[in-house]
Protein 1
Amino acid sequence: MIAITGANGNLGKATLSFLLKKTQPENIVAIVRDADKLSDYAGSGICIRVADYEDQESLERALTGVHRLLQISASATGVRALAQETRVVHAAVKCGVKEIAYTSTLFPEESAHFQAAHICRNTEALIRQSGMRYVFFRNSMYHETIPLFIGEAMGDGRIFYPSGSGRVSFASRKDIAEALSNVLTGPAFDNTTHDITGPEMLSFADIASELKNIAGYPEAAHTDISPEDYRKGLLGFGLDEEEAGFYASMADSIRAGEFAKTHTSLEGFLGRKPLGVQEYLRGLF
Ligand SMILES: NC(=O)c1ccc[n+]([C@@H]2O[C@H](COP(=O)([O-])OP(=O)(O)OC[C@H]3O[C@@H](n4cnc5c(N)ncnc54)[C@H](OP(=O)(O)O)[C@@H]3O)[C@@H](O)[C@H]2O)c1
């Protein structure tokens, strides 16, 4: 059986829908924290199991009989995320999961600015030590994060973001989901690590130019605000210190060039060109 954690999330649900085109529903276990959130799949024939990353026993119940697992990285931050991802790996080992695919991040290095990179680094190490065969998807940022980063700029093209001239090899979340479904239904996992990126790297000034062209915003431009002003702005929007620190670390990471890398592995998994940022942005207007 093939299981997916976070199966009702954006990436999990997209992967699930691709998986259903490739294998029988009886082979699929969708692991969710709240079964109601996957109610549209209730009659699909897949097995929906409830587990919480905070509850080791629930994870062990959910992973019983699973051969291949897609562990989608946690959406929590800090020590909670570290503990949650560790629980999933331990539960998988205990349940005899043989093969695991894990969604890491593009630069999971000791020196990374991005807080999540340290969680991913730890989880990758745990999986390597576990004896399970693995495939790591080191994902760049999703196209779908662009509207989140630039906020009101979707309406006028004026981007205020502390990313300097840092570029990002944005990738389509849907493409990543399709690629994951190919891996999950493909040959034996071969202990490999893949940089999963789009075909090009764009700075936020490049994104502003795209918005000028695509949406016709005459004032579209990127202003590189200070990291401190950005953090204050996030706090002003009601984020707490931990959340603001997380998003600020993401911007620091972009500024430091940690997402400025492209690779053809996504194209290889898809057997076609991945969607580019221009096509994504065009679809929004
Ligand atoms: N590369 C990028 O640009 C990027 C951007 C955003 C996130 N990410 C990472 O990629 C992952 C997948 O992205 P996504 O867009 O699919 O995120 P998402 O839509 O937020 O999905 C997160 C999933 O995790 C589940 N989850 C959260 N806390 C849980 C818990 N305690 N126990 C069990 N399940 C729990 C959520 O369930 P509920 O619905 O019940 O909360 C949801 O199914 C994220 O979790 C994050 O690590 C990457």
Protein 2
Amino acid sequence: MSRPEVMFPSSEKWSRRARTVDAWAATRDQILEVDAANLGYPVYFERASGAHVWDVDGNRFIDFNLGYGPVVLGHAEPRVLDAVVRQMAQGTCASPLWHPRQVELAELMTEVIPGAEQAYLLRTGSDATTAAVRLARIHTGRDKVLRWGYNGWHDWCAPRPEGVPDPTLSNTLKFTYNDIESVRSAFAAHPDEIACVIMMSYEYDAPAPGFLNQVKEIANAHGALFILDEMRSGFRIALGGAQEHFGVVGDLSTFSKAMANGYPISAVVGRADVLAHLGRTHMSSTFYGNPAEMAAAITTIGILRETDALARIRRLGETFVDGLTELVRAYEIPAEVVGLPVSPFLIFDESDTAGCDRKVRFFTEVVRRGVLLHPNHQWFLSAAHTEEDVQISLDACRSAFDLISNG
Ligand SMILES: Cc1ncc(COP(=O)(O)O)c(C=O)c1O
């Protein structure tokens, strides 16, 4: 397939330079998963503001990636930026001393998240899920983990097995989403061995009614903990995350992403008796005590709490989903609009070459029209997106479907 009209000479220049020195870039030609749908995707960005990113070639895009979800209020949101800059100017790396922001943020999280008696602050999502699993192992004296969804890159949940020791791989079991029998049979096959179930509450499909509570009941009945990985749902689907939205409470739950509008901070929250095991293990990092990211989180959560930002995101998402569903129907595209309105996605039928080609042409065309939709990952909306952004994006989708339909 030939290159689309939008060209990226500066991006290509940086890519060439990167290939010899940037080990990450050297292992891949494309920034997304290797997939022809990457054609026409910009690689290097120069700046981001509100709902938009500008690449190094000056092309402006409406951004539905939002850094894989964190940027819930929009890029460089002024109030969050101000809080970070003010904290930075006061100095931000003074471990082993603690900063009062740590207390304020822990108080805030325990106020807004169901079941959060305490909060432990870390840096990344993988830090948080790994810490939660360690705590569950200490609490139960068991090794095995039963999990669903993406939970990070660390050994116990690495999506690919290369470099992970076999005993670690065999200590991680998986179950099938919305299939309660798969949870039951994992516990039946490994009695008294499973320390915890850890899961995202959804990726595309919503949980079946009662499913999350059933998983929790089964886990607890077998002496295991139930950990909800709220990385994508937290501070997005509701202020209190999936736990508030779906009416379930994890023994522990893990947050990052939208919690601080793009600044690196994460948290494990939940039962105080489980979090007390922090006193029996070593889990700490040089940067866990830095208050700038805490200031970002306090400000972000405050805005989400005091404004209708999350309701607006949901409404915009509904408009996007409704519009896209109508287009898919009208153009008779073999594809399905999936996901909750706050994080929708379009799955193409890729069972044959024509289907794969349709997907490539769709994503190439929408990017060419200045809309960044990820071909292989759910999309996100922010409070900075407008009705107009959504309509422009739907127009780009329409033009992509036009192209597909007309050969
Ligand atoms: C559900 C979920 N859990 C855990 C993680 C890991 O977070 P991080 O990439 O910050 O380590 C992610 C990241 O995408 C995620 O989506």
Protein 3
Amino acid sequence: MSDTQRVWFITGANRGIGLELTKQLLESPFNTIIAASRNPSQATALRALSDSAKGRVHLITLDISNKASVQASVKETESILKDRGLDYLINNAGINPAGFDNAFSMDLDNVQAAFATNVIGPAHVAQAYLPLVEKSAAKTIVNVSSTLGSLGTDFGPHFASYSISKAALNMLTVKQAYDRPDLTVVTVCPGHLKTDMGGESAPLEVSVGVSGVLKVIHGLTHEDSGKFINHAGERVPW
Ligand SMILES: NC(=O)c1ccc[n+]([C@@H]2O[C@H](COP(=O)([O-])OP(=O)(O)OC[C@H]3O[C@@H](n4cnc5c(N)ncnc54)[C@H](OP(=O)(O)O)[C@@H]3O)[C@@H](O)[C@H]2O)c1
């Protein structure tokens, strides 16, 4: 890998936004992508991308809610990177286990599941991969959140467990940015996109939201650290 190459690490890269991020990043010959998923052997679309990428997409196994899996994935990534660092860590994997649940009737097991994947998973991945991010040129962590986690935006009572977990992910981002002023850490909303999670009736194609997110990431400066930004490049109210 040459010095002009940038290395990206994407969780949940086998479908939806993670897959599209991998696809669009591959359009630049300067990008190398470490594409993490729970079951790379079954990730048919991702494997097809990797097969045509001439060694620029590396598939690794990672379940972000499993501590042993996170640790094992670091070793696997280190063996791919050798002495290189990780420029962009994209904490994309996420779940909405309950759909439209409301605060007084939500199943608390769903709240726990949402926190395990949407908050604790990204927190653990960031801790485990910090030495690799520190070694890189860009030193950037992007947490993929949602405007549903914005306290300043009125979405009514629904999506309670998911929204609460994304608000917590936003606070994680702020704490990470304060804790390590030498890094750039942001939280982004990709927009409501047509994916398995977003549903077929979502207003935006996944390609539109993802190209917006990549434009935002490419335009980041160090002063943006700690911000909540959407795919259109606008600040989202906390
Ligand atoms: N789509 C939208 O409209 C929208 C809007 C705002 C924010 N977001 C956020 O964008 C991110 C991606 O969403 P999406 O629409 O692409 O969702 P999706 O189509 O449902 O894909 C979710 C991805 O996360 C992975 N994942 C879930 N739990 C995981 C775990 N424990 N370990 C590793 N990977 C795991 C899934 O892997 P498996 O295939 O193994 O399940 C899958 O690759 C999420 O954080 C979501 O909250 C989405």
